[in-house]
Write a structure and sequence with these properties.
By secondary structure, the protein is mainly α. It has one domain: MetI-like (MetI-like fold, Orthogonal Bundle). Helices cover 74% and strands 0% of the residues. It is built from 12 helices and no strands. Helix 7 packs antiparallel against helix 10, helix 10 crosses helix 11 and helix 10 runs antiparallel to helix 12. The protein starts with a helix and ends in a 10-residue tail after the last helix.
Length: 305
């Protein structure tokens, strides 16, 4: 297509509105220059455009959204960020503790019926996407029985009724994300238990005749640390899965804006959301590593070293 694509689109729109316009008119040229500046489409070498993009990242200037023009992309992401973080963090924390507990039971009672049942259930959950689990939960508990809400509450405030409505809406999405994240913690904890249970202090505790539950708790504490490191990776995966969940339920989170940007071909908003996912993954890994250093003295670097 010859000439500027923006000029052609603007001329077509103005022509449909009954305005005689040509691609070379001064009015269209002014509009084209303004839009090119707003969306970062000004003619420039690729390395100059890339430098402007990197500058925009560090200055938090991700450009304007095409769908919500002239609203900045950063404002749109920040408006949906609290809802997404609430959904992801709560689901990941529940999956971490529940998965670590089930994994400790499976690892300590290896090759038993408990171990077999836990492995089968977690293997099935690992193969199911979060939106599939959510779909069946919503049909069963929301549509048929009306226990939970399938649509986001229209009015949000601090009243008890509003808080209860939010709880009824977010319960099933949190459970769906928790189920999809559960298998990683269960299998990771089980493998850690199988390795730790061979240590000498476990054999010594068994010789002393200590209760099995007490021994399991001792092994559980020493096997939990590697699962903390896996928490950051699984949290990043949960963020990507939450985009689909929020898009299906039209929750005012980042996932809703992601689906809208995808269907509207809003490239600046898509780039901003992908950047947000990468930053959240990096921050979660950094935070978990700092917590791991505090919890495990062996990971600290002494001043003498």
């Amino acid at each position: 297509m010859p000439g500027s694509a923006l000029a052609v689109v603007i001329s077509l729109i103005e022509g449909q509105n009954g305005v005689a316009a040509t691609a070379g008119s001064s009015a269209i040229a002014l509009e084209v220059s303004q839009l090119e500046a707003a969306f970062g489409l000004t003619p420039a070498p690729w390395y100059v455009q890339y430098a402007h993009y990197i500058q925009g990242i560090f200055t938090l200037n991700l450009g304007a959204s095409i769908t919500y023009y002239p609203t900045p992309v950063l404002s749109i992401i920040l408006s949906g960020l609290p809802w997404t973080l609430f959904l992801v963090v709560v689901g990941a924390i529940i999956a971490f503790f529940l998965g670590s507990y089930l994994g400790s039971i499976a690892g300590f009672n290896r090759r038993s019926r408990k171990d077999l049942v836990i492995l089968i259930i977690t293997s099935i959950l690992a193969a199911l996407p979060s939106f599939v689990i959510l779909m069946y939960l919503e049909m069963w508990l929301s549509v048929q029985h009306g226990i939970f809400l399938i649509s986001f509450p229209s009015k949000i405030n601090t009243s008890p009724n509003s808080i209860m409505a939010l709880a009824r809406f977010y319960t099933l999405p949190i459970i769906a994300l928790m189920f999809t994240s559960l298998s990683g913690f269960v299998l990771g904890m089980r493998n850690n238990m199988l390795h730790t249970i061979r240590d000498n202090y476990v054999t010594y505790a068994e010789i002393l005749g200590l209760d099995h539950n007490r021994i399991r708790k001792m092994v559980y504490k020493n096997s939990l640390l590697p699962n903390i490191t896996a928490f950051a990776i699984i949290l990043g995966l949960a963020i990507s899965q939450s985009l689909t969940v929020e898009g299906l339920l039209t929750t005012p989170g980042v996932g809703f804006f992601f689906g809208l940007a995808l269907t509207s071909k809003d490239l600046p908003l898509l780039q901003g959301i992908f950047l947000f996912i990468a930053i959240m993954l990096i921050l979660s890994i950094a935070i978990v590593e700092a917590i791991y250093t505090i919890l495990d003295p062996r990971a600290r670097v002494s001043e003498s070293e």
